[in-house]
Structure formats: structure tokens, C-alpha cells
């Protein structure tokens, strides 16, 4: 996450809107908004359930009094949603277990000062409102984040990580036996990737890149590799890496350091990925779009063309749907979740 600009203040004139919508229609059809401003100030980072019938996501609920994200699930047919996190503090990075019976997410609700942070965030927002200027998006790597397991309704919550430091950004392996996550538990502020058993035991380090951030990891559908993001070549300028699940054969997939390229997610074939990228060398706010890549050849194809930010893309288990976080035309007050039918680029 780091210091990334996720929102664009620009919107497209009518003629240009038709152009970008036409360009997107090559790969996306039936684009619709899943979460709305009626219920959420902002929402995003959604993931599908194993059966593809529901999603889990983070959102700031309207009228809750908590300006930070909480975790929600939504039935895709009825659009009914429910909060499954405690409602206190911050949460992030939720994910369903492969058998569809459990879920995990990171939370700071055990922090005794969790509620005291609300006032500071609300004060900054009021200052932004008065100045009519939005701050750069940053992620603070709160040291009170830990990973929790719960039932689908949020019950039987169990703490999986207890080490001092940031533990978050977790996701399951396809077999359900392991969780890969980001942590600075080593105490030297290095944010590395770790793998642990699904019950929180046997934690072992996957990456070793001192002095930088390594995060956002996901196992490939065949369980053999992990895709992730890192700023090891230029601070805050994330690039995409892949590594074998045993820590071998690590390699970089994107290397243009004028760009920030992040949020990768696997397609069902374990060969292609989708991710968000933007050129930071141009003046003004960079605009993020989604890109498809063959991880073997590094061949790319652009998927979105909207003037608003498009980030954090994920596929449904069968690969027919794409879901992502977006401001679409750039005029939305906060990002929301969108979903579309997906047609892969032709090789």
C-alpha cells in the first residue's frame, strides 16, 4: 500500500467517456457497482468466496462513528451485507478459507487505545474538507494489527498471530493448510513475507529483502508460487515479484521505476495475473488502471481505461468475473467495489 495516490480529481468529458468505455468493453462487460455511498463512505479490497456466491471486503460504514475500515460480507444475489469484524479499531485484508467455512482478517481491536485514534482521523478529514484538498493515501502499518480467524458470521474469533509488530495482508493457500502474510515481527522494521500453518503455528520467513516493504501476497491456484509487491528497488515505488512457495526462484516481473505497479492477483490458470499500475513521472495525480500479464513472457494488456482510479483487482474462482476497487469517472467521493464479466486478452 504505502504512499500511493488512489484517487483522481479529474473526470472525462462526454466524448472521452465514450472512448474509454468502448476501450474497456473489449475485456469487461456488464460493469456494475457492488457497494454504494448509501451504506459506505468508502469500500474496497474485496475477495470472492470459493463458490463465487458472496464476497468479503473492507469498508467504512456510514454513521458508525468509526472512520476506519471494518470487514463485511455480501451475498451477490441479494446484495445483503453484514459486518463480521468487531467494529472497533481498524481492520484490513480479509480472505475466505478454501473450504468456505472460515475467514481471516487483520484487526487492531485489541489495542486499548483503538478508539482514541478516531478523533485524530476525523480532525484531518475536516481540515481536508475546509481546504478542499485531499491528502495522499498512506498506510501506517499499525503495530497493533494481528490476524484473526472467524466463522462466516464473525463468531468463534481466534487470534492467529501474537508477535509484537504489524501482522496483516494474509491469504490462504489453495489447500487451506497455510496462510501467507506480511509482518515486521523481526523488530528491525523490515516488512517481509511469512508463511504459517492455518492455525497460526510454525511461522517461517519467505522473503529476505532488508530495508523495504514486501506485501500483498497470494498463492497461485496450483499452490506452487506466491505473487507479491515490493519497493526494494525504489522506496514507495512498488513493483511486482513472484517467488516459489518454498522461497526459491524469486524474480521481478515489473521494473519501470517511474511507475508504481502493485496489487497483483492470480488468474485461475496460475500463469496470468492482474494488477494496478500508474505512471508517477507525469505531473499531477497519477491515475491507476488495471493490467493483465503473462508471468512467463511478461506480455501485458491494459484492461481498464477510466479516468478514475482502478485498483485491487481479483478474479472469481472460475475466472469469469473481475472485481476491483474504483472511483470510475473520478467524481465519486470515495472508492467503492465494482464487478464485471471478464474476457481474457488473446495471446
The low-confidence runs, each spanning 5 or more residues with pLDDT under 50, are: 1-14
| End-to-end CA span | 30 Å
CATH homology superfamily name: TolB, C-terminal domain
Q: Structural class, please?
A: mainly beta
Assign a percent range to the helix content.
Answer: under 10%
CATH architecture tag: 6 Propeller
Task: Quickly count the helices.
Answer: 2
Shape call: globular
The domain count comes to 1
Q: Supply Rg.
A: 19 Å
CATH class: Mainly Beta
Tell me, rounded to a whole number, the average pLDDT: 93
Question: What is the β-strand count?
Answer: 24
Layout of helices and strands, plus pairs?
Elements: H1 14-24, E1 28-33, E2 40-48, E3 54-61, E4 70-75, E5 81-83, E6 91-96, E7 102-107, H2 117-131, E8 146-151, E9 158-159, E10 167-172, E11 178-183, E12 192-197, E13 204-205, E14 214-219, E15 225-230, E16 239-244, E17 251-252, E18 259-266, E19 272-279, E20 289-294, E21 300-302, E22 310-315, E23 321-326, E24 336-342
Antiparallel strand pairs: 1-24, 2-3, 3-4, 4-5, 6-7, 7-8, 8-9, 10-11, 11-12, 12-13, 14-15, 15-16, 16-17, 18-19, 19-20, 20-21, 22-23, 23-24
Write a brief caption for the model:
With 347 residues, the protein is mainly beta. The chain has helices at 14-24, 117-131; strands at 28-33, 40-48, 54-61, 70-75, 81-83, 91-96, 102-107, 146-151, 158-159, 167-172, 178-183, 192-197, 204-205, 214-219, 225-230, 239-244, 251-252, 259-266, 272-279, 289-294, 300-302, 310-315, 321-326, 336-342.
Amino acid at each position: 500500500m504505502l504512499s500511493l495516490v488512489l484517487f483522481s480529481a479529474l473526470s472525462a468529458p462526454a466524448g472521452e467517456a465514450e472512448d474509454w468505455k468502448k476501450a474497456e468493453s473489449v475485456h469487461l462487460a456488464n460493469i456494475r457497482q457492488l457497494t454504494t455511498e448509501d451504506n459506505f463512505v468508502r469500500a474496497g479490497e474485496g475477495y470472492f468466496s470459493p463458490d463465487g456466491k458472496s464476497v468479503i471486503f473492507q469498508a467504512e460504514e456510514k454513521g458508525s462513528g468509526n472512520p476506519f475500515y471494518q470487514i463485511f460480507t455480501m451475498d451477490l444475489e441479494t446484495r445483503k451485507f453484514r459486518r463480521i469484524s468487531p467494529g472497533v479499531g481498524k481492520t484490513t485484508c480479509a480472505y475466505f478459507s478454501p473450504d468456505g467455512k472460515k475467514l481471516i482478517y487483520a484487526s487492531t481491536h485489541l489495542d486499548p487505545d483503538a478508539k482514541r485514534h478516531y478523533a485524530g482521523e476525523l480532525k484531518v478529514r475536516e481540515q481536508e474538507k475546509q481546504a478542499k484538498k485531499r491528502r495522499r493515501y498512506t498506510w501506517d502499518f499499525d503495530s497493533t494489527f494481528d490476524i484473526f480467524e472467524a466463522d462466516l458470521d464473525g463468531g468463534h474469533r481466534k487470534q492467529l498471530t501474537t508477535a509484537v509488530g504489524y501482522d496483516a495482508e494474509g491469504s490462504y493457500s489453495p489447500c487451506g493448510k497455510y496462510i501467507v502474510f506480511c509482518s515486521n515481527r523481526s523488530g528491525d522494521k523490515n516488512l517481509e513475507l511469512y508463511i504459517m500453518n492455518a492455525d497460526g503455528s510454525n511461522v517461517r520467513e519467505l522473503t529476505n529483502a532488508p530495508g523495504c516493504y514486501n506485501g500483498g501476497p497470494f498463492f497461485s491456484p496450483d499452490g506452487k508460487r506466491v505473487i507479491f509487491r515490493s519497493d526494494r528497488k525504489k522506496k514507495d515505488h512498488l513493483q511486482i515479484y513472484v517467488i516459489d512457495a518454498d522461497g526459491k526462484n524469486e524474480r521481478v516481473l515489473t521494473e519501470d521505476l517511474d511507475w508504481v505497479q502493485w496489487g497483483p492477483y492470480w488468474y485461475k490458470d496460475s500463469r496470468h495475473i492482474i494488477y494496478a499500475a500508474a505512471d508517477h513521472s507525469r505531473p499531477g495525480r497519477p491515475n491507476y488502471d488495471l493490467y493483465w500479464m503473462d508471468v512467463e513472457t511478461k506480455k501485458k494488456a491494459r484492461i481498464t481505461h477510466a479516468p478514475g482510479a482502478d485498483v485491487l483487482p481479483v478474479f472469481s474462482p472460475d475466472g469469469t468475473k473481475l472485481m476491483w476497487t474504483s472511483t470510475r469517472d473520478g467524481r465519486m467521493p470515495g472508492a467503492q467495489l465494482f464487478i464485471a464479466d471478464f474476457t481474457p486478452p488473446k495471446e
